[in-house]
Structure formats: C-alpha cells, structure tokens
Design goal:
It contains 3 helices and 5 strands; from the N terminus they run βααβββαβ. By secondary structure, the chain is α+β, with helices and mostly antiparallel strands. 23% of the residues are buried. The structure holds coenzyme A.
C-alpha cells in the first residue's frame, strides 16, 4: 500500500465522502441515503481531517470544535481495506492538535467501543444524549 497523506478542510467531494462512510461500515449508522443531510453535516463541520492514498479518500475525522474548550468528534471512519494501519490514530492526533486545549468528546459506535480506550480515551460515566427535535 502507498503512503498516506493527511489534509485538513471540508472542501471535499460529497459523493466520495459518502462512499468512504459506506466503505468503512460507518455508513450503516449515518444517514448516507439522505444526500442533503450528509451535505449539511460536511458543510457545517468546522474541523475535518482526511487521509488519502493518492487520490483515494481512505479516512475521515469529522468534528465540530470551538478550538478552546471542546471538540465533538462525530464521525471517525477508515476504509475497511485500510484499517489497523494507524490511520484512525493519526486522524485523532491531528484533530486533537488542531483543537488546542479543547477536549475531544464522542460517542463510540458499537464496533468501536473497545477502540477508543486503546487510543487514549477514558470512558465518561456521566454522558447524556438528547435526541434531535423535529421541525413542527
Ligand atoms: C474504528 C476505526 C476508525 C479505527 O481506525 P483504524 O485506522 O483501523 O485504527 P488504528 O489503526 O489507528 O488502530 C489503533 C489501535 O487500535 C486497535 N483497533 C483498531 N480497531 C479496533 C477496534 N474496532 N476495537 C479495538 N481495537 C481496535 C488497533 O489494533 C491498534 O492497536 P495497536 O495500537 O495495539 O496497534 C475503524 O476501524 C473504522 O472506521 N471502523 C468503522 C467505523 C466506526 O465504527 N467508526 C467509529 C465511529 S464512532
């Protein structure tokens, strides 16, 4: 496999991003069939780090950050063919570095519950989620 290059920014081809979500299996847990919603998720994210093998998008970390206190890492995805090569770890490292003092907060997907402790995260016993409201 070739060298992996990392980039920052959300000026990405939406179709390539959706394809990556599918190719990582995260697509099963994200609204990949709703192109408009996926487009908003990408456009409004203000801290996006991507991994590339040549022109092939192989990984993404999509976050929202205030670059001072907190970064919400919503989606971390690495193409199945490229997993377990340290790409996820490097995407997290760069996300953390870009956030400065901000702590990274996330919800682990079922398959990644055992991943985050391996890359330095601690489980928070007091996390809560309020589901999104729907338009009246
Ligand atoms: C979870 C995911 C992002 C990890 O990315 P990755 O590039 O394969 O992970 P890395 O190569 O950086 O792995 C770092 C370490 O964690 C281990 N690891 C990787 N995936 C793991 C998993 N699912 N569970 C437990 N440990 C895992 C690796 O073996 C490695 O261990 P080492 O430091 O002893 O070598 C990737 O598997 C993925 O995209 N999964 C599907 C989508 C998903 O569930 N995303 C999380 C959404 S919250």
């Amino acid at each position: 496999m070739g060298a992996i290059e990392y980039r920052r920014g959300n000026a990405l081809d939406l179709e390539a991003v959706i394809e990556l979500y599918r190719a990582s299996t995260l697509g099963a847990r994200r609204p990949v069939e709703d192109r408009e919603r996926m487009g908003a998720m990408l456009a409004q994210a203000n801290l996006v780090v991507t991994a590339w093998e040549g022109e092939l998008l192989v990984g993404v970390a999509r976050s929202l950050s205030d670059f001072a206190y907190c970064t919400y890492l919503s989606d971390l995805a690495v193409r199945v063919s490229h997993q377990r090569r340290g790409i996820g770890r490097e995407l997290i490292r760069r996300t953390r570095e870009a956030g400065g003092a901000a702590q990274i907060i996330l919800l682990a997907a079922p398959r990644a519950v055992d991943y985050y402790p391996r890359v330095g995260f601690t489980r928070h016993p007091a996390a809560y989620v309020l589901e999104g409201g729907v338009s009246p």
